Every structure is written in structure tokens, then in C-alpha cells.
Amino acid sequence: MNRPLPTSGAMGPLVLRPDGKQVIASSMYNKGKAFIGAAILLSRETDSEHSDYVVLHLLCEGIEIVLKGLLLVRDYDRYYPRLHKKPLRHDLKKIALETASAYGRKLPRGGVVTELEALSTLYKQHLLRYGGVSDMHVDPRTIRRDKVLRYVTAVLRLAERPRSQE
Known about the structure:
Elements: E1 7-8, E2 15-16, H1 18-45, H2 49-79, H3 92-102, H4 111-124, H5 134-137, H6 146-160
Antiparallel strand pairs: 1-2
Helix pairs in contact: 1-2, 2-3, 4-6
């Protein structure tokens, strides 16, 4: 949808107004949900090794974008400049820790972190998208993700709650 972003600055540099920042944050969050939805749908339709690499990539992409969208919702001006720089970039664990901290929560311990670290390692090195030596040694269907999916589902439920319940 092509709609102008709410900006100010008639003849000077464009500056996003707060409502424009929320449009961007919301769009990012919703795109992330769509990536996660696509991963879930694809995982139900196929059981091939090659497709599962795509499922994992879509899942990781969705997690990254949902969490970054939530950071922008929390404080656009603080987080927008940091989204594409280290330490956040594509590090799912660091993004999850930052998001949990921004919302006054802790990242669950144990299996969630272990799975998130494993997925993050593959994702940030682009090993889920491109072929590499790991393709000869790792069947992506063996990469654990159940706990991360439950965690992400819980995050989405919290994010979708009406504000009056917070």
C-alpha cells in the first residue's frame, strides 16, 4: 500500500512524526508475523530437507523482524539507528535479550536459549539460505526449534494483548 508517511519539515529534511514512526514499527512487526506464518505453512506442506532450510530461514527472519518491530514500538528513536549495527544486526539471541529487556522481561532459560543460539548461528552466517559445507553434515530437520516456536508464540500473544491489560 502506497500511503505517504506522516512527516514534518516543509522545505527542510523530512522528519517522521510520532505517528509515522508507529506506522513503520507496526509494518515491520506485521511483516515479521507474515514470515513466521509462511514458515509454519511451508512446514506443513513439505517434508524435504531443502524446504526445511527455507522454513528455518523464514522462521529466523520472522523472529528478527517481529522483535525489531517491537523494539521500534517501544522506542523508535533509540532503536532505529541500532537495528542494522552490531551487536544486534542478525543475532537472534541478542535481539531477543534486548527486546525482553526493553519490555522489562527476562529471556526464558534453558532450551529456548539453546535453540535460539543454534538458529542464530546458522542464520547470521547465512547458512540457511546458501549452500555450504554444513549442507553435507546437517539435516535441517534435526535442528531443534520447538521451544523457540513456543517462546515466539508467547511473545506474539503478549504483543497482541489490548493495551488496557498491561
